[in-house]
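Comment thread on ticket #2218

A.B. wrote:
> Attaching the input chain for the structure job we discussed in standup.
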Amino acid sequence: MTRPFVGKTSDHYTFDPKVPSIPMISASGLAAIYAYHGPKQRTGGTIKFSVLNSPTCICNGGIKGTINGIPFHKDCLPEPKGDLVQQKNPTCWVETYQGGLSCCHHQNILLDKDQTPPEELLTYHMKFRFYFQPYTEATPTKPASHTNLLRMYYQTEANAGEYDIPKCSSTTPSEDCVHEITAHFQVKDMMRECPLRKDPSCWGNTTGYEGINLIYAGGHCHAPSCISMELYNADTGMLLCSHYPVYGKTHEVFDELGYLALPPCLWGPDTEG
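C.D. wrote:
> Ran it. Output below, let me know if you need it in another format.
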């Protein structure tokens, strides 16, 4: 069976001779009525093409796999962007993956033994309180009352989204069981040229900046393994920000046992304290 590269109509697929493969998603429902597919009826793959009457290059793309029918994908960046690849952290490859975010897709339920999940759904409510100040536009003699802040985001685990902390040897003293990861990045690695109102991480026109002023820096880590986080200027070695988590000790509000708070780093003029 043959057919032209260009689809017959806009509803038919048009093949691009320059693209050697097509990603594919396969899913089936649980009944005749159109609805969300079941957690075990979904999978994905890649259709590879070969050229007729011509050699086809076969490349080793590494070991591929799926978890709950969903293709496993991690983009762990090598040094200097991150060091999980150098450390051979299990989170980067499906054959060594121990568990985590890739196991927790929609409608997947993780149980510690063979159990039947209850049919009823849990309902919860969240309450938010927002504080704001009226905005005053700039005048010829006075700047605007507020400055728009741009969000810069980078993962120390460099695109992995998570990572494993290796278990210490049973003979190693607990005070020596400290695992560290490091990432090296530049401001340009976090710049995103897109409309400011489209996404909180957008910068607008990225050519209009000559530098940055740090106003707020907030790291992210999880209890109980988070000890500290530090941000340095790689050119000067100057410590710009350090986070030392505050662990909850009681069951009081904002001091919950087993949770931690991460005080951010703040910069500003003396007039603002």
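A.B. wrote:
> Thanks. Noting for the ticket: Helices lie at 84-87.
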